[in-house]
Amino acid sequence: MEKEEKKFVNKAEEDEMEIYGYDLCRWKLVLVIVGVICSGGFLLLLLYWMPQWRVKATCKRTTLKDCEVVLLRTTDEFKIWFCAKVRIMPSLGANPLQNPNPLVHKVSNGHAVHFCESAAEENKNDLKKYLPIRYFTHHSVKYFWNDSVQSFDVVRGLDESTFCSSIHNEHSTGLTKGMHDYRKAFYGVNEIAVKVPSIFKLLIKEVLNPFYIFQLFSVILWITDEYHYYALAIVIMSVISIVSSLYTIRKQYVMLHDMVAAHSIVRVSVCRGNQEIEEILSTDLVPGDIMLIPSNGTIMPCDAVLLSGTCIVNESMLTGESVPVTKINLPNPSEYPKAMGDEIYSPEVHKRHTLFCGTNVIQTRFYTGELVKALVVRTGFSTAKGQLVRSILYPKPTDFKLYRDAYLFLLSLVVVAGIGFLYTVVNSILNEVPAHTIIIESLDIITITVPPALPAAMTAGIVYAQRRLKKIGIFCISPQRINICGQLNLVCFDKTGTLTEDGLDLWGIQRVESARFLLPEERACSESLLKSEFVACMATCHSLTKIEGVLSGDPLDLKMFEAIGWILEEATEEETALHNRIMPTVVRPSKQLFPESKQATNQEMELFELSTSYEIGIVRQFPFSSVLQRMCVIARVLGEKRMDAYMKGAPEVIASLCKQETVPVDFECVLEEYTKQGFRVIALAHRKLESKLTWHKVQTINRDAIESNMDFMGLIIMQNKLKQETPAVLEDLHKANIRTVMVTGDNMLTAISVARDCGMILPQDKVIIAEALPPKDGQAARINWHYADTLAKCTSSSPAINSEDIPVKLVHESLEDLQMTKYHFAMNGKSFAVILEHFQDLVPKLVLHGTVFARMAPDQKTQLVEALQNVDYYVGMCGDGANDCGALKRAHGGISLSELEASVASPFTSRTPSISCVPKLIREGRAALITSFCVFKFMALYSIIQYISVTLLYSILSNLGDFQFLFIDLAIILVVVFTMSLNPAWKELVARRPPSGLISGPLLCSVLSQIIICLAFQTFGFFWVKQQSWYEPWTIESDACNVLDATNTSSSYHENETLHDEHYIKNYENTTLFFISSFQYLIVAIVFSKGKPFRQPCYKNFLFVMSVMVLYVFIFFIMLHPVESIDTFLELVCVPYEWRLRILIIVILNAIVSVLTEEAVDRCGVCFLSSLFGCRERTPKAKYMHLAQELLVDPEWPPKPRTTTEAKVPPQENGSYQIITVT
Predict the structure, then answer these.
(1) Which of the 8 DSSP states describes residue 495?
(2) CB contact at 8 A, 621 and 328
(3) Strands, E assignment, 2-77
């Protein structure tokens, strides 16, 4: 066949994959079967582990259009392979969103056709009516063949390429029963099915893990070599490990299943094409169904767009925001083409009209005769919740240097094992050892070199760290990320609710009259302001609602509404039913606000109430949008003919939408004064609407038509206090050389002020504001550079900038400190977007010193985290869950301060909403990372020490005994490994960071030096014992103890020895190496158990200290005072007491040399390696450190005040720029 062009699925998306087509090849399959039989099943295992080999070995390449099997490969850095079988489904058409084959009338006349089931029962003539539709399933998503793109593609719902007008005009009537069944064949059952695998399936999958297969191979080998007890011990350990693993995995599946099961099956009412209402199970919903939302609420079983009515929804499961939000119906552009343009519907863009799967609809408000209807747009795993569950079920592999290095380290151990294998084979052949013994012993050396307990040992430290985190109120759903948190060197913080208190207090208001600011007023509920438009705006422009009689909504809206002392009343269902429209929410002042009410008598009260009945009805609400940074309402005062529009939001945005003649000339100065003091400022605006705007027109009008030509009314000043612990936590992070960045949706000057108050920006530091402007009127995009202290000065002439104001570049001793210079960049979301698009070359330079990012939309927060990661920062993100989900998920370590279900998106969740959890997490991360290094180094030394012992003994055709192996592996290694991981984290963060990988100079130097020391002392002991005067090759008759008349030893127990020592275990060399190596395991355990500065000292780890002491005492005891039963059990021989003392001297010298060498490596290893390999001349590995070095000698950086950076006009490469000075 001709070479087919490379095809992709999910093109340009996060889960993009290459796709290749294959057909089953019978002769290849026969060859594979023969290979499997000849290899004893090993080839089958290999093909199970490697799907690409499996497909290529049994299939031949063909076109995608005709293939039976597809091979998929991810296009990310991991390049993971998957395979899937292509299936065929009979269908009346190829596109579920179009009408099926018109020749078949069963659908059009409403007759139910069960395609998948009935197709097999139809006769041959009927089968001709069906088209064979080819598809495959991968990660719970179906991919159907698409002729137009000649590739497989996901069948989309109504969430893409559907215009808002067609949603109302074409999709609002519902589906016929036949069309519903036709679509269901494509979309399948509407459920997020998290199937809990059976114990048997999980067991097979777990047992076929390469690690357990290697263990099985080891056990078979040991049994063949008659090492029964050790083999049994390993089997017991493996069974315990498998059972524990199965329990944990199944528990996670059950938890996830229970989490998504809440909406799986509920009964819902849908409208059919003939206006009939039918009750069906939610699992039968398909895109295009019209679902009726019950008045008492429901949990949404799908994603749907509101066609009529209003809903109050709790979206905490998705956003982390516990405040209920109001969802309004999607406006129909075709009814008012002049007022609003038609656009393609998108759940993200039109989220205020979309009900998301899994969210809880609390209340509905509806038209009489036209209940609250919603059009189903996405079902199953395509929904927002489905995508979240998929990301949990099929997570991306964690790319961390430690794990990559661990595989390289294991590979190097395999190489060492290979050398030992060859040595054993050659040595055995030279000594004319039987072939059977050669095979067993040479394979045995491999099982010794690659330790079977390594994976369990590596996870021990993480498990202990997870438990410690749980004790301090930090919950973790991704344990592997604990190690990565040990590397964090930059943390992004949300401001409101994270650095500052969640609640806002009303500091005061400052009204505007005749385009001039009045004096600030402390109270907004004074008599003179009762019927003012300013108070009316505060009373109506919010998203508050009553849930079970309690006022609920955004905390800022609540504070604002409470400050004026008004009452909010919502219409009941009975009241709404009496009218032909939704009864508006009504707000009115409480009676106490009218001064006359205090003197009025009971008889006068009725007349008074009639005369003072001042009520405002909220007719239409445009909810707050973080993208638009404002909200707007249309209201009508009782008795008034014309309606009013009220708007509140970010002052800069509100001012830009107002008539310029109503905005005070000193607006920027007044705003700056407040924001510099750290106040949160909200602007209000008002507009009288035209009398021709009727109630019905208002319900469909575009918000852009309302939010223009407003009258500026003034400012509300809210006080947002810093949390008590914030400055101290940030100071701890700065001392530890961890950068802190603020990412907020608030005003930039407010954010800068808070950054200065909390110590993120020091008093002497300069702040450079980057104001980026997009291309306009033929002019290229540009960045204007201002200094925060000189921005928008209110003086008549701006003073010249002192040379001292220009930041100073500081040369630091270490590369880690290069980022800590005396200037910071600040910018808002709009500028950030322009810079990302037009100044790509500048992005790394700006994020290197960027400290304040204000007015950032949720997706921009994620983009910032990615930009920081692109320059090799390990980024942490701490937010309160609202609008931070994307960034929390993207960061290396995301910490949510919200305990809601949204914390599923975040690897870590803190029970206490305080940033004090950040240094705690980093400390535990560092401790876990160092523990992983310690354990890995120890396990590597354990295998090498044992490898040295066995290799030396093989040279005399001996080996370690079964119970010697058992004692070393169980009594020493397992006990030490699982207790040395218990060291808690050090009490404070230090400026040093632990290394990120095993392949680093100091770590390699440490491991290699200890290997050389152990090799030297074992080899010395091995050869020295042969030089002793009493030495002779050991036999049953040998009696070295009696030769020297040693009184402290037992000399007669060997006379009763009747068992024949087939493997020549008992000899002087074996006994000598057993004692020396046993002490060496304990010596390296102590040497590698590092404490300060990342973990508590060893002596505070009680279990470890006790374990090591007991083992030391026991081995000293059996060495210096042999016990006959123990010597028999461990197959040790009697050696003279003098030699026992010499072994003791060897061990003491070994301990001293090991400790001193490790101390020397810790202190001088880095300097020595740097000078040895010329590392000082090399550029730093991290991009941000390399960039910081370059910027130190760049005369054009940082940009000077009063300069502009201009993007070069196309056709120049995007991202190029030049700096020009403004005169």
Answers:
(1) I
(2) yes
(3) 7-9, 17-24, 59-62, 69-74
CB 360 within 8 A of CB 312: no
10 Å Cβ neighbour count for 504?
A: 22
Q: Report the SS3 class of residue 350.
A: coil
Active site residue 969: no
Reference 620, options 653, 585, 650, 649; nearest CA is 585
Q: What is the pLDDT of residues 218-260, one digit of tens each?
A: 888 878 777 777 778 778 877 877 887 787 778 777 877 777 7
- Give the model confidence (pLDDT) of 180-207 as tens digits: 888 888 888 888 888 888 888 888 887 7
Q: Cβ distance 155 to 382 under 8 Å?
A: no
Domain ranges of the chain: 1-97+130-155, 199-262, 267-393, 404-471+930-1032+1064-1173, 474-502+722-791+822-911+1180-1209, 505-592+614-719
- Those residues whose C-beta lies under 8 Å from the C-beta of residue 767, and which sit 6 or more positions away, are 752, 761, 787, 788, 789, 823, 824, 825, 826, 851, 852
Confidence of residue 34 (pLDDT cuts 50, 70, 90): very high
Side chain identity at residue 1172, one-letter code? L
* All residues at 6 or more sequence positions from 712 whose CB lies less than 8 Å from its CB, including other chains: 512, 515, 654, 655, 658, 659, 662, 663, 664, 667, 683, 684, 685
Residues 857-904: tens digit of each pLDDT: 777 888 888 889 888 888 998 887 545 666 777 788 888 876 654 445
pLDDT, tens digit, 9 for 90 and up, residues 798-828: 333 343 444 444 434 343 443 444 788 888 8
Q: Within 10 A of 547 (CB to CB), how many other CB atoms are there?
A: 14
Any residues with CB less than 8 A from the CB of 439 and at least 6 apart, and which?
Answer: none
Phi, psi for 1208 (deg, rounded to 5): -75, 140
* Sign (positive or negative) of CA dihedral 11, 12, 13, 19: positive
Residues 325, 312 contacting (CB under 8 angstroms): yes
Could you identify the residue written with the tokens 């009537």? 173
Q: What is the sign of the dihedral through the CA atoms of 1177, 1180, 1183 and 1187?
A: negative
CATH architecture entry for 267-393 = Distorted Sandwich (2.70)
Collapsing DSSP to helix, strand or coil, 329 comes out as coil
Q: CA 108 to CA 111: how far, in whole Å? A: 8
Could you give the angle at the alpha carbon of 811 between the alpha carbons of 807 and 815, nearest 5°?
A: 120
Q: Residue 319 in contact with residue 881, Cβ under 8 Å? A: yes
Distance from C-alpha of 366 to C-alpha of 580, rounded to nearest angstrom: 10
Q: What is the pTM of this model?
A: 0.72
What span, in angstroms and rounded, lies between the C-alpha atoms of 622 and 245? 51
The one catalytic residue in 159, 181, 444, 494 is 494
Give the CATH fold of the 505-592+614-719 domain.
Answer: Calcium-transporting ATPase, cytoplasmic domain N (3.40.1110)
pLDDT at 1019: 93
The Cα angle at residue 670 between residues 667 and 675, in degrees rounded to 5? 115
Q: Which CATH number fits domain 474-502+722-791+822-911+1180-1209: 1.20.140.10, 2.30.110.10, 3.40.50.1000, 3.30.530.20?
A: 3.40.50.1000
Q: What is the pLDDT of residues 267-308, one digit of tens each?
A: 888 888 767 888 888 888 999 888 988 877 788 888 999 988
What are the CA-CA distances from residue 1211 to residues 117, 569, 835, 1214, 1215 (Å)? 59, 60, 18, 8, 11
Tokens of 1001: 């100079």
Q: Which of 460, 483, 467 is nearest to 979 (CA)?
A: 460
The pLDDT-based confidence of 945 (bands split at 50, 70, 90) is very high
User: Domain 404-471+930-1032+1064-1173 maps to which CATH number in 3.30.420.40, 3.40.50.300, 1.20.1110.10, 3.40.309.10?
Assistant: 1.20.1110.10
Using CB atoms within 10 Å of the CB of residue 119, give its burial: 0 to 12 exposed, 13 to 18 middle, 19+ buried.
middle
